[in-house]
Amino acid sequence: MWTQIIGKIRLALAPWTNHSWHVTLYVTARGLTTSPIPYGRRVFEIRFDFIDHTLRILTADGKLKSIALEPRSVADFYRIVMATMQDLGLQVNINTTPNEVADAIPFEKDEAHRAYDPAATNQFWRVLVQTDRVFKQFRSRFCGKCSPVHFFWGSFDLAVTRFSGRAAPPHPGGIPHLPDAVTREAYSQEVSSLGFWPGNEAMPEPIFYSYAYPEPPGFSSAEIQPAAASYNPQLKEFVLPYEAVRTAADPDEVLLQFAQSAYDAAASLGKWDREALTEHKPDLRLPAGNP
């Protein structure tokens, strides 16, 4: 809920970017950040620090306010953040109903959820740091339209998405507390998406996932590496348990195998222009004998 509050501040002020890329957070060496947000001619940024367990609001004109990340209700956190924003001369109104969750309680009324476990939060962030690193390596192989590696605070996953360059059929929508128009714009083009998700009650284990929209015929029966990967018909995506990666002799290679084989299936079965979308990197090595 705290990341939703901060994400919605970015949503309210940042220019709309295709597929809702203007609302996400980004992994940093200490936590998560909004990146710089415009406020008229001013600029500010909000950073979660999961080492010191502090939320920092920084402005380009040199102001800084800090809020301790500690057990407190969602309503209390919301009030403190909004008051701190006003102290910095940053007035913003957000939709206070959480997105993509069932039984959503408006932030200002949520006194029920008040847990904050610093050790668990730090552990989760460290998973994001390593995942972000490998996802960026995978992203570098592609030269077509591709999203950043970014954290969606509604679904609570880290993802990177490749695009074929072709339009997709309208998405059916139906995501809780998310306007169908937003979902349809997000999936208005053919995609192959890779992500990490910590799970929920329905999927009580962390997973890496990969899906295609629209899903091409034969995708669900494609052979995906490694052997621990499987197709989940409920999620309509290939999943790889986080434990299978964490305990592997070479976690990076196992995750890249999964990412590449799932993309290969989506792009080949979907008849993407594979050659045109493959990045051919220049050789920047100095000639032999050239210091």
Relevant terms:
7 helices; 291 residues
Tell me what portion of residues adopts beta-strand conformation: 15-25%
Q: What letter string, H or E per element, gives the SSE order? A: HEEEEEEHHEEHEEEEHHH
Number of β-strand runs:
12
Separation of the first and last Cα atoms: 54 Å
Computed Rg? 20 Å
Molecular structure report:
The chain is α+β, with helices and mostly antiparallel strands and 291 residues long. 29% of the residues lie in helices and 22% in strands. The chain has 7 helices and 12 strands. The strands form 2 sheets. Strands 1, 2, 3, 4, 5 and 6 form a 6-stranded antiparallel β-sheet that branches. The chain has a 6-stranded antiparallel β-sheet with strand order 7-8-9-10-12-11. Strand 5 and strand 6 (64-68) form a beta hairpin.
Topology:
Elements: H1 2-13, E1 26-27, E2 31-33, E3 37-39, E4 42-49, E5 54-59, E6 64-68, H2 74-87, H3 118-139, E7 150-152, E8 157-167, H4 180-186, E9 189-197, E10 207-213, E11 230-232, E12 237-241, H5 242-246, H6 251-269, H7 274-277
Antiparallel strand pairs: 1-2, 2-4, 3-4, 4-5, 5-6, 7-8, 8-9, 9-10, 10-12, 11-12
In short:
This protein is an alpha+beta fold. Helices cover 29% and strands 22% of the residues.
